[in-house]
Amino acid sequence: MQRRGRTGTIAAVSALGMTAVLGGCGLTGGGSGDVTLKLIAADYGDSAANSSQKYWDRLVREYESKHSGVKIDVTVYSWNDVDRKVKELVDAGKAPDMAQIGAYADYANKGLLYSADDMLSISTQADFASQLATAGQVKGVQYGLPFAASTRLLFYNKTLFKNAGLTPPKTWNDLAADAKVLKARGVKFPYALPLGPEEAQAETMQWLLSGGGGYTDTVGTYGLDSAQNVDTFNWLKDDLVDKGLTGPVAPGSLNRATAFAAFAKGEVGMLNGHPSLMKIAAQKGVKFGMVPMPGKDGQSKNAMGVADWMMAFKKNGHAEQVGKFLDFVYDE
């Protein structure tokens, strides 16, 4: 399954069962019966030149040319803002017809979303990877439609490592030792730790998994204060942050996009990244490598997968029109 005309690098998560997944709106036209569907979407680009707005504009032009009476109005926001923007609209009673954002479950639990069965053709639903379709369910009903999915790996700057005589880390202590050497050689961010508002939950989850913990236990109960999680945060604070190995920006103020941009400038020794960083770094001529996330005592046995979701709100009653558009979006 892929989005029509999708550009860029998206890595499908192959086994989410063993990974951790993480204006006015909906106006109808006048007496003609025309409908304008509102979509709020996230921006996967890192500049105006490759903004997701271009992807959606091209897709909408193609769809509207074949479907008279339906207009699609797409607004794209950065990942810093998109989930908040949708929440503000929903809270104001102005939910968009569709949202392509990071989380769907809260809206589903409140009864605000159409299910996949309410909208999509059987062929479209059948084309979703089963693990992703299951991850989009609440109480056995699918509300989240997988839009993009990726796994996370540790990226490292090959040039900085070669010049310092380092090898990629396999354990936390290896990572700290490498970061210490990189700091001594003047690297701005020996290890970039983006715990800012853009995607703190993903960076946090990756570290928790590498420490043998996670947000929930084996039966799905939240356990943020588990012994493993406490040990992980203590190690991060004591062995990385307090020793100045995470760079000049406080982790809580560092966003993923800023960290990625710094990596593309050759200012970062190591950081956790997803497939889009490959393109960003390559365009800037940065030689990089990727390895599994180091664990406390060896390479982590758990990988993290992140899925982004499309969802449709019931507010404006456009299930049929939304379904036809999304069938088009997800058409191979």
Entry summary:
This protein is of the alpha/beta class. The chain is 36% helix and 18% strand.
How many strands, which pairing sense, and closed or not: the largest β-sheet? 6 strands, mixed
| Gross CATH architecture of the largest domain | 3-Layer(aba) Sandwich
User: CATH top level of the largest domain?
Assistant: Alpha Beta
- Classify the fold: give the CATH topology of the largest domain: D-Maltodextrin-Binding Protein, domain 2
The helix/strand class is: alpha/beta
Number of helices: 13
Rg is: 21 Å
Describe this structure in words.
36% of the residues lie in helices and 18% in strands. Residues 5-21 and 23-32 have low confidence and may be disordered. By secondary structure, it is α/β, with parallel strands linked by helices. Helix 11 packs parallel to helix 12 (276-283). The protein is built from 13 helices and 12 strands. It has 2 domains: 16-150 and 307-329, 3-Layer(aba) Sandwich (D-Maltodextrin-Binding Protein, domain 2); 153-302, Periplasmic binding protein-like II (D-Maltodextrin-Binding Protein, domain 2). The strands form 3 sheets. Strands 1, 2, 3, 4, 7 and 12 form a 6-stranded mixed beta sheet that branches. Strands 9-10-8-11 form a 4-stranded mixed beta sheet. It has a two-stranded antiparallel ribbon with strand order 5-6.
